Write the structure tokens for this entry.
Amino acid sequence: MIAVVIPAYRAAATILPVISAIGPEIELIVVVDDGCPEGTALSVAKSCPDSRVVALMHGDNRGVGAAFLTGMRYAIERGADIIVKIDADGQMDPSQVPALIHPIAGGQADYVKGDRFFFLTNARSMPKARLFGNLALSFMAKLSSGYWTIMDPTNGFFAIQARVAELLDDERIAKRFFFETDLLFHLGLIRAKVVEFPMRASYGDEVSSLRISQQLAPFLAGHLRNTLRRILYRYFFREFSLASIQLVAGAALFGFGLMFGLYHWWSAPPEQLVPTGTIMIAALTFLIGFQLLLSFLNYDISASPREPLHPFLSRAPSRAVQESAKPAEAGAEQPARRQA
């Protein structure tokens, strides 16, 4: 079964057209109202005639990641094999879902995400601030996740195989704007195969709630934390290889050469020449360290997961849907369900 999860916040005006555009190949549509002041879930429960739709609601706003994870766990409980995330603002075309899930259904990938940079027309139509932010974050996402071919890490249009999703640690995945990038990091920890799907996106008059000035520091801190965690886990805890030695030796020599050279350059009197031996020590250690780091980077790029994980996994026993999700109807104890 294929399920679609739609996190919704301030989306009462756009959610119904998004649902109506979802094709018949989807058997379950889970709308998760993330504490929306407009009552998006109530609007869907009252106005949407689609029998595939289930409306869940968070009592407070927890972030797009928390909303998706709630819907994902619910879809897994209902027996979904592939879970697709579509945003409620209408920027994603639901008609692209069959192509999006094709690599997973064919056993070629565990996770497929949209790539808005494949088509140059997308880049021209994308708001400049959003384009610059995505390009700036792409390298940091490659470094922190280990998926070096990924070009659009913050894209929220993706599909994940249910057996792989069951391996994820919900509690440790970021719940707000860092969600999509942090999800890549956690997929990298379990060595899931990730591929990108060329997609077209439309940008209307919607206003993003992301404030770059407020989120820049948390994004940088998150990428730095994930990079350190990934390298320690991948190259020192899980295995120890030649790349591990290259990283340690390269970082030590590079750092020593840089600091040694800067110290003697800065401390030398203007009228006194720096000894040739000092220059050679600084230059050689710096260059050898730099070369070792490049060798490590080359190994890291070539070590990206190449085989899908889910064909080797058995389905885990279903877990109860998160107790934190409550139904759209006031006073009820279970989500509003419309059985197909």
